[in-house]
Amino acid sequence: MGSRVEVMAMGKWISRPDDIDALVRQWAEQFPEYVRAESKPQYGGRPVWALTVTDRNQAVESKPAAMFFKPHAHEPAPVSAQMNFVSQLLTGCDLEGTATRLPREEILARTELCFMPDANPAGTATAPVDAWDGTQYTNEELWAWMQGIDPENGKMWKRVDLWDDTVEHPLPLRYGIVYEQITEHEYVEPNRHHGSTLFKWIFELRGRRKWDRMLSLHQTEFVGMVHNCMAILPCLYEKQPPEVQYCELAWAQRIVEAWAAMPGGKPLPEIKPLGYTGRQRQYFVERWGDIYKDGTVVISEICTNSLLCPPELQQALNEKAIEVTVLGLLD
């Protein structure tokens, strides 16, 4: 795994689980009035953190709330972005020590925010790099790290919601880091199966209160495109209540506008529902359908594994999506 030296050499970038654990525990000790750090253990024991950030001296029940989460272990920039954003709220500085420009006192006083920096730290811990920057692995090699190596062709193994290594044949030569182990022999993709720790957290948190925004943070390769970021609506967008549709579209538009104003930001201008078809779409219908009935959800996708989008830009684009979401709660 990446060493402390490697992390610090990348400045604000922090994505390895051991570093996340240490910093979360430090924050929980130093800022108990602002952060509640809770965790659920994965099958192998690694904690999946849910960090609730707000000023507890202000009445919490009336505050608008937003939830942020990163499901996939091969997409580290959203981890770094969330940690850097939380650092600014708690300490007044980013992870490099630069003073924040965020209205942190107003955010803490008027909103309740929950961050799940990494829903599958066990997968992230086995990634071969701290950040996918396009210099060490081709996209095909990245995909094989993501899904596993197919023994029949040496390329990416199949994509499923759940698989059992006592049943599957042939097994991948290397298990994909996107999958979370949930029993001795079962593995799930976190945002495609209710057995994942991600969904366990989402269901528990939604049972506590209504979340006005849920931002699902992702990365993809943007192969053959000039763009490096896009905002996506839920696949069931057209079946959502009109008031939810209006909120999601307006929110996504604000994110895209903010990206376009950034140095290096090249957002896809069109904002559409998630375009999966077939079984991949059905996973979302089955797992997210009830949430989409009253939940306001946007998916962000930031470029990864490209020389045209280095890690610092990957982080900045992710962080801008978080910032726009949070500041929107203050309107």
What does this protein look like?
With 331 residues, the protein is of the alpha/beta class. The protein has a single domain, classed as Zn peptidases (Aminopeptidase, 3-Layer(aba) Sandwich), CATH 3.40.630. It has helices at residues 4-9, 17-30, 77-91, 104-110, 121-125, 139-147, 197-208, 242-260, 278-294, 311-329, and strands at 35-41, 47-53, 65-69, 112-116, 162-164, 180-181, 186-188, 213-220, 229-233, 272-273, 297-303. The strands form two sheets. The protein has an eight-stranded mixed sheet with strand order 1-2-4-3-8-11-9-10, sandwiched between helices. It is globular. The N and C termini lie far apart (42 Å). Mean pLDDT is 95; it is low at 1-10.
List keywords for this structure.
331 residues; 3-stranded antiparallel sheet; 11 strands; globular; single chain; 8-stranded mixed sheet; disordered N terminus; alpha/beta; Aminopeptidase
Separate helix tally: 10
Indicate the structural class: alpha/beta
Rg from Cα: 19 Å
Major beta-sheet overview: 8 strands, mixed
Report mean pLDDT, rounded to a whole number. Answer: 95
Please name the CATH architecture. Answer: 3-Layer(aba) Sandwich
From the spread of the alpha carbons, the general shape counts as globular
CATH third-tier fold name: Aminopeptidase
What does the oligomeric state look like here?
Answer: single chain
Distance between the termini: 42 Å
Measured as a percent range, the helix fraction is 25-40%
**Percent range for β-strand residues:** 15-25%
Low-confidence stretches: 1-10
